[in-house]
Request: fold
Amino acid sequence: MLLIPCPWCGPRDESEFSYGGEAHIARPREPESLSDAEWADYQFMRTNPCGWHREQWLHAHGCRRWFNVERNTATYAIRAAYRLDEAPPHREDAL
Reply:
């Protein structure tokens, strides 16, 4: 069982959450000016690291808020959870 620390509700079972994909993806300022290849790259190409990764999660069966999690994809360890309006924690070994 994975315990995910919601910034508002505290640690909860992973069954209460929905995964939202990679965090900190900047939307293009002028999407209409992108080529099909550039738009496809924005829509579908994501990093898939073995190690530390920043992700978005929704507390679907709790406070219904989105937040970011810094999680190790190999070990499932979570070292940070922070609100969308907060900067990611700075770490020397960060992503």
User: Anything to note?
Assistant: Strands lie at 3-6, 10-13, 18-22, 52-58, 66-72, 78-83.
